[in-house]
Request: fold
Amino acid sequence: MKHATKTVIRTLLVLLALLAILLPQSAVLAEDMVPGEVPPAQTTDSTSSKAVAAAVVVGIAAAAGAVSMGIAISKSAESMARQPEAAGKINSALMLGLVFIETTIIYGLIVAILIFFVL
Reply:
């Protein structure tokens, strides 16, 4: 189940990144154009769509990270309550897990920065 959740989150991040790439660069309606006029190459619509995509990527990554951190902390506290003699090992495993979760959130932030500034 844990692997499936990570796979779903990664898939959502990839889909959101692709959505930001594939969104139209300019939204010019046909009735707004003068006949024979060439639509502008890029308008502020692309910047705003990139900003929305970046915000969604960071929001999903942060929300998923917060939920998974909460689950990890509650399970470790429950385990330490059951076996107090193993609290040191449980605590070190918890910290390592929290580092990996936080790394995933930082990857989401990097993807958002790449969407906004590079693409």
